[in-house]
Design brief:
Elements (H helix, E strand, L loop, with lengths): L1 E2 H6 L6 H9 L3 E3 L2 E2 L6 E2 L6 E3 L2 E3 L6 E6 L21 H4 L4 E2 L8 E7 L2 H8 L7 E7 L5 H9 L1 E2 L5 E2 L3 E6 L5 E6 L6 H8 L4 E9 L2 E2 L9 E3 L2 H10 L4
Parallel strand pairs: 9-15
Antiparallel strand pairs: 1-4, 2-3, 2-5, 5-6, 7-9, 7-17, 8-9, 10-14, 10-15, 11-12, 13-14, 15-16
Length: 241
């Protein structure tokens, strides 16, 4: 059972103070009857709430899929630049969402935002082996020897130990294209691994986390909520091995 003001404020559309006023004005119905108080408690799984005649759907946690553009920091705040939260509308910004992991400022693609700390931690932990897949365009011609180096894992010159990863060559030439699959997310890892092979990254985009792929309909900078099927897909990836 949860207080009405907490349930409605959890949607991001109203503050608790605003909910109190809505209830006082008789604009909030619970199971078809005017809510007697903003402090009244209801079962969020069963109660039918409406505000001004519109249904309000409660979510325990919010999950957002964002097609991150270049130039935005994967952070909740920064005094020097724009963050990914600046791409969200005010109602979602009120929910105290945070990025699930980081993408570099100049890296584009799939970024999840949530207020579900436990699931986010499991998604990022190497313990649960959730693959992260990146599309990269590099300066140089990728070869099978590069694929084998990724498969074996590598220690980069500054001492960074990288676990075995996947490298699939899409096109080979002066500027090769590839897919890189990681099961960890160390600082600048894709860029540093490719640079260690003498193929510096020109462009980088994350396209998948586990079985969840970036929605092709989302243009750069656009977002949408995850569906229940997508959430179940994510959770299904997180098997303790």
């Amino acid at each position: 059972m949860q207080r009405l003001d907490k349930l409605l404020a959890g949607t991001g559309k109203w503050s608790r103070r605003e909910v109190k006023l809505l209830v006082k004005q008789g604009r909030v119905l619970a199971d078809g009857a005017p809510a007697p108080s903003s402090e009244e408690k209801y079962d969020p799984e069963t109660v039918m709430l409406t505000v001004d005649g519109e249904n309000v759907f409660w979510r325990k946690h919010t999950w957002v899929m964002l097609n991150k553009p270049d130039g935005y920091l994967s952070a909740t705040e920064d005094g020097k630049g724009k963050t990914v939260l600046d791409l969200l509308p005010p109602d979602l910004q009120k929910l105290e969402l945070f990025p699930v992991g980081r993408l570099d400022k100049d890296t584009e693609g799939l970024l999840l935002l949530t207020d579900d700390g436990q699931t986010a931690h499991r998604l990022l932990s190497p313990k649960y082996h959730v693959d992260k897949v990146y599309y990269a365009r590099v300066d140089g011609c990728l070869e099978e020897v590069d694929c084998r180096a990724f498969e074996m894992g590598m220690t980069i010159g500054d001492g960074l130990v990288c676990r075995p990863a996947g490298l699939k060559i899409l096109t080979a030439g002066a500027q090769s294209e590839c897919l890189v699959t990681l099961r960890e997310g160390k600082f600048h890892q894709v860029k540093r691994m490719l640079a260690a092979q003498g193929k510096p990254v020109i462009y980088l985009k994350r396209v998948a986390m586990g079985k969840l792929t970036l929605d092709e309909k989302l243009r750069i900078g656009e977002f949408r909520l995850l569906t229940e099927n997508e959430l179940n897909m994510l959770r299904g990836n997180m098997e303790d091995t």
